[in-house]
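Entry: ABC transporter permease
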Amino acid sequence: MSGFEDGISFRQGNCARARSNEHFKWFVMIKNYFKIAWRNLQRNHLYAILNISGLSIGLACALIVFWFIRFQTTHDHFHKNIDRIYQITTEFHFDGVGYSRGVPTPMWKAMRTEMPQFTTGMCIEGYNAFMAVLDNTGKTIKKFKEEGPAVAYVHPEYFSIFDRHWQFGNAKASLSKPNTIVLSRAMAEKYFGKENPIGKVIRFANRLNLEVTGIVDNAVDNTDMPYGFFVSFATLTANPKFSYGGSGIDNWGGVNSNTYCFTLVPAGTNIKNVEKQLAALNKKYHGNDYKSYAHPILPYKEIHHSERYYGPMPMKWIWIMSAIGIFLIVTACFNFINMATAQALRRSKEVGIRKSVGGTKSQVFSQFMLETGIITFLAMAIGLIIATLTLPNISEWLEQPGGWPKQIVWSDGFLWIFLASLFTAVVLLAGSYPGTILAGFRPVLALKGNVTARHIGGISLRRGLIVFQFVLIQLLVICTLVVNNQVSFMLSSSVGYETKGIASIQIPAPDKINQSTFRQRLLSIPGVSDASFCLFLPTTTSNNTSNFSYDTRQKDELWQMNTKNADNHYTSTFGLTLVAGENIPQSDTIKGYLINEKVVEKLGVKNSKDVIGKNLKIWGVTAPIYGVLKNWNNGTFKSEIDPIAIFTYKDNSYRCAIKLSSTNLHQTMKEVEKLWNEYFPDYLYEQTFLDEQITKAYELENIMLKLIRVFSIISIFIGCLGLYGLVKFMASQKTKEIGVRKVLGASLTSILGIFGKEISLLIVVAFIIAAPLGWYLMHAWLEDYQYRIPIGADIMSFAILITFVVAAITAGYESLKAALKDPVKSLKSE
């Protein structure tokens, strides 16, 4: 080897050793950073505990909020074609605009005729289905009652649009023929155990025998179509007398809200062109009534969040939960900044020494950011454990097992992106300012101990952070109080009739019993004072509406009537009040009508007595108006009072309402069940209470109220940690001042006043910001309710009172400790 080559080799060896030494130095430096960080945390354990506690709770809440939002915003996204799945809906243009997810049942035929390039299928959703398993002789051997949207009548094309994996059979072979049913795996196991269910027979509603022809996998948790039973749509055509949802197979004039039409749009389709085709279809098939209807097409994934179409999770609640999650994280980070800047004074000499021996600003900053990272990592680990352990219990606590995430999906890439982003954001937000302050200390001042509060941003910075925390706390308190009061108002306000002590039982076959005899036997039971056969209760989420004409007017009214089938005992059972006329006569068919005051108002008639004896034509039947009833709330307090007509139609009376006068409800209802089983031995008995059903209508509000309450308490707790840190810092800064005051004769009250005045000022400033902002936000929220509470001074006063009480409890101990400290020791410490 030449000398030249030896030189090159030597220089390369030196470079390699230099790089190795550089890497080793970095390793040693990082190792030292970790040691110093860990020792600082051990030395200042109270500071570490407070920071880790606040951050871990805030991060746990943020994770729970993330899983909630992720769960709700990915409903039905497991379908591979979710971006091309659309739903045809209905707009009613009568008196104003109404909306429904349902469509006329023959919509699917029209879609296939006019738009054959689309894959289109119908789905009629059924609730509270009664099912019985039959043996080979046709005898019932098992009976079940399925709650919720358990059953769906579907075309085979349904499975070309939505993904449900077939374990046995296929859509075309299993659902093309009438009287066939496909089960989910869970339902197959529930009904048939380990037996092969294929070819077995299930009796549906005790009227239809359906052969099991296929098995599909179970529905996932985050779906709005958790069906366990799929009945062939051809079953409805083959059994015209059997109606379970739908408004007539070929009827364009009626819409059932649970009759859905889905279509799979080809890739690249211009939806504007589809809307034009639907407008033409509407005009063609609705005939002269086409102006009263419209059929918008919407992306199916948006339906879940649509308030207009009664989506189960309106987008406003997603935004509210997102805001709460951000509030909690920001509050926890501000706590960190408060305490870290307070600790900066104690660490000033440490920073001065490091800088005097050659430490740079970047090294000091890196050291503090590493400490912040360690605290955040520990807090995130604890928060993750808390959230993981808590999540499975949330569904049970909220009484919504099917509508909330039950477990963490660790394979979800968004989860890890969120965790990484959250960790980075918290470290930067919480550590950057304190790190910059520490790195900026001048070594001379630091070593002389001349670094004061002014050099670390002063108390003004901490005041600003505490004010911001108090603003968030008071906002949450105001929101909690408004939501709580609105829900209480809705649950406690009278709906216009008696709701207590009203039980409701199902009548599976109203056309096969003597209702008069059944009612008399009910009345003979001790504790039963009245009973009425009907289809709908006075207040319900299920309603029928119909066109109608009044008196001699040649055309139908431009608005629709809410129709309720009921007998002549309906008014006495529910305590509905007649304001004019008399009750309808006893009859099995339509002989007359009762209407409410709203109908009189919308007809433009000034006096209720003037409509008595005039004719109404509903369902093609012309009959006189017998009486006018005082208005009552037919739905929730979100909507106005509906125009309502009540008339008798025996064959549709699938419900019996029972008015109870007994205090021994258990024994009374036990006797009712015994009588019911005598009439309907092949069915399962079911009873509900009217006041419970009304409460259920506000289920979402109650759930969100529970969550907001909990997050408000957590926010207050995190804010208390920050306030505690501020008071502790103030006490350390005012040690000499307090000592001098006490030597000069200051009382305990006046010393405590120093802290009280400071904190009170912060609370008042926060309230001045939070009160108008809270009023604006909650006023916008209340706009969704037709009947709502006012946001008065009582709510605002209570919000600031709660803040004062919490602040007094939090700051009291540290303030009292500082005020009671021996002035000799306080002055000697200087």
